[in-house]
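Protein Record: Sequence and Backbone Structure Tokens
======================================================
Scope: a single protein chain, as residues and as a discrete description of its fold.
Tokens: labelled as protein backbone structure tokens, with as many entries as the chain has residues.
Position: the record begins directly beneath this header, with no further notes in between.
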Amino acid sequence: MVKPGKFDELKCILSCFQYSLHLIILTETWLKSDDEANHYQIPGYTHYYNYRSTSRGGGVSIYVHNKLKHRLIEEQCTADCHYVWINLENYNLDIGAIYRKPDTTNLKEFLDIYSQQLYKRGRAVVFGDFNLNLLNMEFVTTYREILQGAGYKIMNNVSEKFCTRECVTSKTIIDHVSSNLVENKFHFALIDTPMSDHKQIYFEIINHKRIFNKKVQYEAIDYDKLYKTIQEWINKEIINEINNRNILWSEHKSNPKDEIKHEKFLKERNKVSEHIQQCKSKYYLKAFTDCINKPKKMWSVLSCLSCNRIKKEWVPNKIKTQNGLISDEKEICDYFNKFFSEIGSNLANLIPSKYHHSLTINKVTLATGSPKHTLSEITPTTTDEVGKIIDKLNTNTSSGLDGVSPKSLKCIKNIILDELTVSINKCLKQGVFPNSLKIAKVTPIYKSGCKLDV
């Protein structure tokens, strides 16, 4: 995944699909940090991942389409084996992505962890590079027994003809799909391309509806100008070159000893990789050149480029408390609320007692003490004052929890001004403030240190 051009090629291939894929699962991503993972994002998808920070290799990623309601339920790296589990709320379905390091020394530990995870799930489908060859019964007997005991069935067709990795000397099935959805029908296909030395797996639960790309109907628009504006660096020429390279790959695979076919494939492979990078560079160079004196458009281009750095939901899926780890969303919210409501007084109590009678501290305390006036004592407002406040609102700011934007408020000002003024004065007279306007959305932002600590 981190090899230059490889991820861009994946984007090119995804653009050819007539419908959106729910999930894209990658193994052996070779990611080494959160910052690096943030560089590999697919527009319209959320990226969940687990990486190995102590050594090279490994890693798994799950890209989930944002039209689905989803959440991370578990991710860990133990003994260089990776586990990521997410939940698709729309389907009441858990999805797992697993990578097991290719050695036999950690097999028992891996099977213990994996079996515990399987028993915790409800309806689930699990994908992974297990590095356990289903064609070799010597090492997979216990693995099969664990799956069977947890109610799971291997979806692969266990035959050399349907191997997931093939080289000159051997054929193996080390990439597996398993599920406990016994009542569902599936479509399972293997795709052989030069993107990886493993075959890609296409898996579809047949009775689940696909998410088709939404078609937007435009009116009174110059379509030539529109298409010119939205043209991306991915073009038909690149797609044709990828298809041609795949044909040469198939010819080479059918006759691996033919040096001429091998040479043709390598030449086309390198050509595709270079062309993708050239098209992408030229596209963004032209985009920056066209808006060199237009800061707003420049930021728009930068925003387009930063689709690799999507806005993250910083709310953690688990945090550490005095009583241990908690993962329930409501408990996490309550803990954050308790922490921030008490942090002021807790820090104040840490101030040495000799400073408690400090003149400076007393002045601050008096200045920020309880208000001496109530709402009912405030002078009523006027339509002129309310109108001026609305006129000064910044239309570039977002709407509040009520969903009313400053721009909308300005548009309907003359219609609501009298009634709005009456409502404000009524609240002042009765000494009340609307509860709905007391709500604030607070988002904790991770800065540094352990992500489990508040």
In short: Residues 218-231 have pLDDT under 50 and may be disordered. The chain has three domains: 6-212, 241-309, 319-438. Residues 161 and 177 are 17 Å apart (CA to CA).
